Amino acid sequence: MSDDPVDAIMAVMQTAFDSRFGEAWTRRQVADALLSPSTHFLLFGQAEGEPLRAAQTTGFTMSRHVADEVELLLIAVRPDCRGQGLGRSIMQQFLADAYERGARKAFLEMRAGNPAEHLYRTCGFQQIGVRKGYYRGAVGGPIDAITFGQTI
What we know:
The model has no long low-confidence stretch (mean pLDDT 94). The chain has a single domain (5-151), classed as Gcn5-related N-acetyltransferase (GNAT) (Aminopeptidase). It is globular. It is of the alpha+beta class. Strand 3, helix 3 and strand 4 form a beta-alpha-beta unit. The chain has helices at residues 5-16, 27-34, 86-100, 117-122; strands at residues 39-44, 59-66, 69-77, 105-111, 126-135, 143-151. The chain has a six-stranded mixed sheet, with helices on both faces.
């Protein structure tokens, strides 16, 4: 028996997101988002042609595509898989997949101080805005959200 995509996303998210910042989504939020035809996901670490196994998932993206724009809602790499270039590979695949679906602009939002900022910038994203005090559930918060965008 195979797991479902929500199992795979949650397996990574539960280990990858620091609970101090309140950024991780609940299982219900992920499942509800995936019901929308404009929401897409990519899973990494799965053996091709094999049943989906949540425990094998090393990373994922979840995005929303509308017209010629895509918004990266979530990206995560399992902590024990970091530092191996997987984040960059995931981001490149996400952008290529979005381009294939017709996206020409990509956006994302992150909390100020997120170490993933380096990844986003090296993948071509540039800061285009700030939402003051957006992350209210964060320890030591509220924390600003930084909006990034790029042409793909």
